[in-house]
Amino acid sequence: MTPVLESLTLIIESVPQILMGFGLTLQLLFLSGILGLILAILLLLMRISGSAYLSAPAMVYIYVFRGTPILVQIFIIYHGLAQFEAIRESIFWAILREPFGCGVLALTLNTGAYVSEILRGGVLGVERGLLEAGAALGLSKRHRFIHITTPIAVRLAIPAYSNDVISLMKSTALVSTITLLDMMGYARIVYAETYAPYEVFTSLMVIYLLMTWIIQRAFGLFERRMSRHIRQ
Amino acid sequence: MSNSEPNSEPNAEPIIVLKDVDKFFGDFQALKKINLTVKKGERIVVCGPSGSGKSTMIRCINRLEQHNAGQITVAGHVLTDQIKDIDAVRREVGMVFQNFNLFPHLSVIDNLMLAPRLVRNTGKIEAREKAMSLLERVRIPEQADKYPSQLSGGQQQRVAIARALCMNPEIMLFDEPTSALDPEMISEVLEVMTDLAQDGMTMICVTHEMGFARSVADEVVFMDEGEIVERNNPENFFNNPQHQRTKLFLSQILAH
Amino acid sequence: MDVLTGWWDDFFWGSVVVVQVFFVALILMVLFGLIGAAAKLSDNKVAQKIASGYTIVFRGTPEILVLLLFYFGSAIALTSIAQIFDPEIKYLDIPPFWAGSFAIALIVGSYATETFRGAFLGVDPGQVEAARALGLSNFKTFIYIQVPAMWRLALPPFGNHMLSLIKDTALISVIGLEETVFIAEQAMGTTGKPFTMFILVGAIYLSFSTIITLSVMRMEKYANKHLEVSR
Questions:
Q1: How many domains does chain C have?
Q2: C188 to chain A nearest CA, in Å?
């Protein structure tokens, strides 16, 4: 067999194996994406609450999770938490005993910190004058936040949020370091069997690039929808 | 155009009273011992050089800025830190901004309906009828379903006036409503404001439109460096200013 | 802290490795970023295509994948080249230090490409016109007007790129670089205290992040001196 044909055969054989991990990659992305968004909103509300008791812990949390490598966060949760008997005997152990639970938890905690900063950027980007106009009309603080700040901030935050979803997708590949078989995990197995890094890893790269493209497209459409009031 | 008749009776009750009001921004004193009484139905034009405290003063009246000393009473409510429901006061006071500040994500009609629906719990149909009648009053009912960014500046400002009127305010504050407009759009906004004045609305307008002041105002207030320098009826204000600073300002603004 | 006895040395040298990788990768990252930006801004269609391919690929694939592809791929290439000269050689690789530094610099460099390009395009054209109208040469306009303005625009995102670099260093442990995560994995095996070990690693990285953040803040303050309100 010629080398080109050999490579082609390798790619054709390895892609289906890699795709066996596609479901897990998607699960990680969606679960931690949604949980992370909820966490981010909570952190954002704490930060803009005006109370130091709420905003200071949120700031420290965000600082720590943005200032340390996500790989370290994954290892602390996966390897580290088992060090404590209290955790091993708690109800959370059902989740934390499983690498999947650890992976989702780590990704959620990490993306929550980043996304809350993105949302805050959106909130700070809302023109002051619009909120003053709301106040002058007698809208309460809550009404102003729900009906003025939120819709405008969401639109402002979409491009950055889309980038963070892509980051999250890239981070899901790290769970292969804690024995999970996502696409990256399967690719590493296939590589160990074939010693063909170019074929195996490049195929996986193409799959991830396609996912990136789909995420960008989806958010691009969403942003266009949200911006229909700006189009002439 | 001659002066319209003052529509406040001589003994009408004061609806806005500012007493010895001070306002600081850090070290900078923006308002110095301001005293101003406005009676129900009175139309006041406030003028003065930039940075004289005109905008700050009217922004204190609906508490977009908080004054540091003195007392402000609006429609019977004293504005203090303890005030329970500043939103209740704000419902009685409509405001029109220099930059319109229309909500960009809402259509024109939704801009008008938002506050009545949320604050006054007005039903959808009723709020819509009210909004449409006000859009007719500012002469742009055909723009109801457009978004603010699709309108000209003059149209946007007329929508902003209608939006404030939707809450049936007793008082209207205008903060340089024509300063951000192209010259050819100024008159359409002033016409709407003149209509409003003739209907008996209590108005305080910060503006440099001296023609408007002459024809509509009951009184003109001149401010400089955070103080009220002079207050007079338009006739005397323009023809016989009492203070040197007023004369200087008028000569500069009327020179061109 | 007793469990750490005997491991302090290893964590210290692990930290030194982190710093070394950071500086090597930083230089490479700036280089890749500048080349990428120059290619994107050039009139050459081929260069533009290559540069946008570079940014799309490296911004859209997981860092760990780039790292593994780069490390194992280069090993295969290196081995087959070496075998031409000496058929006895079974396996040859680029040391994880260099493969890793190069890979993370390529990744972060793809982001820096956009930063540098954006900074160049972000300079107010009026300032350039004003300088040209005053008779400054193209070169002098670039050095005295455009570069300082670009620097101010690029500094905040550049700070984030440096943070990405330092954090991506941790990933290189996966291909065997003996930085702090690698040390902690070994220490965890012998001491049975994984939490302690990885929290220490987290603390080390957090201190590096803090140093970078504070330095960038200082630089921003210096770069924006002219914007300070005079009293």
A1: 1
A2: 9
Q: Enter the ipTM.
A: 0.91
- Residue A135 CA to residue A7 CA, distance in Å, equals 66
Contact C15, C204 (CB under 8 A): yes
- Tell me which residue range forms the domain holding A23: 3-231
State the pairing for strand pair B202-206/B43-47.
parallel
The CA distance from A130 to B69, in Å, is 27
Average pLDDT in the B166-178 region? 94
Residue A39 belongs to a domain with what CATH number? 1.10.3720.10
C contact test, residue of A96, A110, A170, A207 with most C CBs within 10 A: A170
From the CA of C127, how many Å to the nearest CA of chain A?
27
Question: What are the E-state strand segments in chain C?
Answer: none
Structure tokens at A169: 């997708």
Tell me which DSSP letter residue B74 carries. E
Buried b (16+ CB within 10 A) or exposed e, B153-162: bbbbbbbbbb
* Residue C221 CB contacts under 8 Å (≥ 6 apart), including other chains: none
Q: State pTM to two decimals.
A: 0.88
Given a cut of 60, whether residue C7 has pLDDT beyond it is yes
Q: What is the pLDDT of residues A190-206, one digit of tens each?
A: 999 998 899 999 999 99
Residues of chain B positioned with their CB less than 8 A from the CB of A135: 62, 64, 87, 90
- Rg over alpha carbons for chain A, rounded to the nearest Å, is 22
A128 part of contact set with chain B, CB < 8 Å: no
Residues of A in contact with C68 (CB under 8 A): 188, 191, 197, 201
Number of domains in chain A: 1
Beta carbons within 8 Å of B126's beta carbon, 6+ residues apart: none
CA C219-C124-A156 angle, 5° bins? 75
Does the pLDDT at position B7 exceed 70? Answer: no
* Separation between Cα atoms, residue B230 and residue B234, nearest integer Å: 11
> Which among B101, B115, B149 is the nearest to A138, CB-wise?
B115
Please tell me whether residue A80 adopts helix, strand or coil conformation: helix
Burial class, B9, CB count within 10 angstroms (exposed 0-12 / middle 13-18 / buried 19+) = exposed
Query: What is the Cα–Cα distance from C78 to A145, expressed in whole angstroms?
Result: 60
Return the bridge partners of B172, or none.
B94, B203
- The whole domain housing C122 covers 2-230
